[in-house]
User: Fold this.
Amino acid sequence: MYIDQPGQWQEYGMIVGVPKEIKSHEYRVAITPAGVEQLKRYGHRVLVEQGAGAGSGIPDEDYQAYGAEIASSPQEVYGNAELICKVKETLPQEIEMLTERHVIFTYMHFAADRKLTEGVRDSGCVSIVYETIQDEKGRLPLLEPMSEVAGRMSIQEGAKYLEKPMMGRGILLGGIPGVEPANVLIIGGGIVGSNAAQIAAGLGARVVVMDIDLYRLRYLEHVMPPNVRTVYSTPESIRRHLSEADLVIGAVLIPGARCPTLVPRDYLSLMKQGAVIVDVGVDQGGCCETTRPTTHADPTYVVDGVVHYGVANMPGAVGRTSTFGLTNATMPYLIRLANEGWQHAAASDPGLALGVNIVHGKITNKAVADAFDLPYTPFEPQAA
Assistant:
């Protein structure tokens, strides 16, 4: 077992730290007791901050039963651990605790936040992000579980905010006999979009899914029920369907980069008063010009009569489901990082290497550097 230290390699068990998430209404945790057991079998120490699993229904005692050490504060976690495993991006008070000896493994979504990018860069740490790791087929294995949750939740939340007390149009998504159902427009036919379409269709809505990938549209045409239609995405087709939509789901993703703006503000004038936009890509900037991040505590705002839902950590609200779904995907990577050290692991897995976004003060993901016109340094993994 090895850990990468600046300028040298040492043989001993890794110290893995799991701090409690502090983002507003974030109830996920980056490891389960089963994950602790796996790391302990390889000889690593695991520090879990007190109460880190409470939002997911995992008490400290369960972690201790599988060999974790409970830390009383985030300072204790960051002060001792070498590999930090989290769920959401580091907030300013967490960035202050990062140093060049740390490797941090979490979602970051750098391209939507210059301050975050520069803060993590200036800390000197190594940042390996879930959202740009790819498997051998070019898929995003650590993004997909939360995309599934967010896609399904987007319809659940959209249906709620279509209610009149929530400033919506006062429409039941599936309608009733004799009354038409809602029209749902989904921009993007990937994991988020297909999961949203599945739930919306199951509730009886009339659904349109847009994408520019004809192969994806053909696939969706075959697997979706009859109340789901597919449309090739162009500015004209977006404008036309926005005018009919009661609920719009933004489900656009470009790995590591900011979302393109597909719904500029002037398009809102085409929409019905009280229509709802749920922009799932908000943590990458969103595909609607008027999208801005919100929280579970204050999730919506209205622009030009259209209700916007911009919660950037949607899956955090269903912490238990999300924690187990996420850690099923992340644990094999976390174990490799702990066992081999980040450089060895990245050198042996090109897909994991794509997750390395920042290394000791250098931005190694081109999309992130380009988003803010910052210097880019290609990452060339080398096993020590």
